[in-house]
Specification:
- The complex is a heterodimer of chains A (113) and B (109).
- Chain A has 113 residues and is mostly beta strands.
- Chain A contains no helices and eleven strands.
- The model of chain A has no long low-confidence stretch (mean pLDDT 94).
- The termini of chain A are far apart.
- In chain A, strands 2, 4, 5, 6, 9, 10 and 11 form a seven-stranded mixed sheet that branches. In chain A, strands 1-3-8-7 form a four-stranded antiparallel sheet, with no helix packed on it.
- Chain A is 0% helix and 52% strand.
- Chain B contains no helices and eleven strands.
- In chain B, strands 2, 5, 6, 9, 10 and 11 form a six-stranded mixed sheet that branches.
- The model of chain B has no long low-confidence stretch (mean pLDDT 93).
- The chains are: A mainly beta (113), B mainly beta (109).
- Chains A and B meet through strand 4, strand 5 and strand 9 of A and strand 5, strand 6, strand 9 and strand 10 of B.
């Protein structure tokens, strides 16, 4: 079974703090993704990566950055957290051989006060 | 740009009744469409994809290119089908998914 693990299930941060969300997958997938999930808005793509050190902006990259130094790990960084970044963050991975089949982590619920 | 629309935020049906969750898309290329499901307190997972034309847990979905739709159907709903359902379209360099806003299905006893 593919396992995508997000290190923090729940975080509470203050406005202006730097936030790191970590994601690790164990299936040697090339592609990794960060989405945020909000009621009524569904999932929106923040950033994705199709190879180590490669990254591309998704639909809502503003206020976020990412890092992929190793194939199995994809980090989402909020340089200066704001209240409108309070959300559920989902990490996912996929293989190019199974296009569109994403394996998701359990999610990280971030609250910014 | 691609877009996926799920017009119903909430849908309730009685156990044993047919259910249809609507999905419409706009995309200039040849679409690859998927349904994902999230049960309570579980992670989001793939339910089915149009290209395999399979039935999973009694659900089917047919791609209608003329109507740009990919509705999810089940003839007899079960209580365990209660979940959040997302329609998604694959595109781009990493075949990333564009999701609809989701439909919360509740199957009543």
């Amino acid at each position: 079974d593919v396992k995508v693990t997000q290190s923090s299930r729940y975080l509470v941060k203050r406005t202006g703090e730097k936030v790191f969300l970590e994601c690790v997958q164990d299936m040697d997938h090339e592609n990794m993704f960060w989405y945020r999930q909000d009621p009524g808005l569904g999932l929106r793509l923040i950033y994705f990566s199709y190879d180590v050190k490669m990254k591309e902006k998704g639909d809502i990259p503003e206020g976020y950055s990412v890092s992929r130094e190793k194939k199995e790990r994809f980090s989402l960084i909020l340089e200066s957290a704001s209240t409108n970044q309070t959300s559920m963050y989902l990490c996912a991975s996929s293989s190019p051989l199974q296009a569109g089949e994403l394996f998701f982590g359990e999610g990280s619920r971030l609250t910014v006060l | 740009a691609q877009r996926v629309t799920q017009p119903e935020k909430l849908l309730s049906v009685f156990k044993g009744a047919p259910v249809e969750l609507k999905c419409n898309y706009s995309y200039s290329g040849s679409p690859e469409l998927f349904w994902y499901v999230q049960y309570s307190r579980q992670r989001l997972q793939l339910l089915l994809r149009h290209i395999s034309r399979e039935s999973i847990k009694g659900f089917t979905a047919d791609l209608n290119k003329g109507e740009t739709s990919f509705h999810l159907k089940k003839p007899f709903a079960q209580e365990e089908d209660s979940a959040m359902y997302y329609c998604a379209l694959s595109s781009g360099s990493a075949r990333q998914l564009t999701f609809g806003s989701g439909t919360q299905l509740t199957v009543l006893p």
